[in-house]
Amino acid sequence: MFQTIDDLEPGQRLLVRCDLNSPVEDGTVQDNRRFSRHAETLRELLADDHAVAVLAHQGRPGRDSFVSLEQHADVLADHLDREVGFVADTFGEEALAAIRDLEGGDVLVLENARMCDEELPEEDPEVKAETEFVRTLAPEFDAYVNDAYSAAHRSHASLVGFPVVMDAYAGRVMEAEYTANSAIQTREFDGPVTMVLGGTKAEDLIPVIERVDDTVDRFCLGGIVGELFLRAAGHDVGYDVDGTEFFDHQWDDHADTIERILDEYGDRLHLATDLAYEGDDGERAEAPVEGLAKDTSYLDVGSETADAYADLVRDSEAAFVKGALGVFEDERFAHGTVEVLRAIAETDCFSVVGGGDTSRAVDLYDLDAEDFSHVSIAGGAYVRALTGEPLVGVEVLEREA
User: Fold this and answer.
1) How many helices (H) and strands (E) does the chain have?
2) What is the CATH code for 186-367?
3) Same CATH topology for 5-178+393-400 and 186-367?
């Protein structure tokens, strides 16, 4: 097991890796659950008189979301209710000077780690530990804290290099996410276990069905993955239309697997019986899947499907959610996602709602996070935890402990 911040002596200089990666709309970074969750870790560290420098990333080079972390520092300051410094540098002289000026109770956000050339390539921890990035920053700190569970599947310098060369600990988010998201592999449930799978990244979810089949009794499918399985079942949906690029490439790459899983898992797979779309009047419209042709984008499961999925959840001993059933950011197409989440919240079952986007729905529609066993801010790491795949960011913490 890894060390946690309970093992830290107070009053140290800490490099804390958070995951503050957030949606960016019209150049503005959007506040979300990641800020509030990491703020809990930082608040505890600051109360113990630690001096904290925050290392994080935002977007990827070449994308509109690849922006500076200056706005992130402001959002974090609002959550911490204290001043948060920012330096437009990660490990150069400007950053080092700002780090050396830190005193107990201070917090500083360093510039986007992905603006460093040595951050992104996926390489072994020992290779990352030898980068100038790691070798320059590590001596400036007494210890490293990794709180970025949602990025723990990435073998990037800021995630795996520092534990090799310095004392390393898990933050509260890392600790809580690892425990909750690993539950499907370690816990036994007396009653039915239901998994709801949706969202846009079908290729990430398809392997999940096979890898958790010993634990999960039934799967409720929506979103892109749901339409692709409907296509495999012979319905005229699951195609790209109107310039979309969600379906065809994923079908081309995974059609054989989808068809095989559909054949092997039979009635354990629950597919939508109706779908929702934008009608001519701009309002939500619904149509049964039987006889439906793909001439528009379907943006949510229909009401009949949402009710059926909610009934399955209410009859469950445990429920796991990865991905939304529709475009919940648009209230017209939030019904499927919200109906299922409300059913879980009302049911006394073990529940984990996972994925950064899906966890946003909990806040957006005024659901109480306390009604779920765990609301995960992780996406890719959550999927890997569900399937029992190793997380390199966790492994290196455990090994170096």
Assistant:
1) 16, 17
2) 3.40.50.1260
3) yes
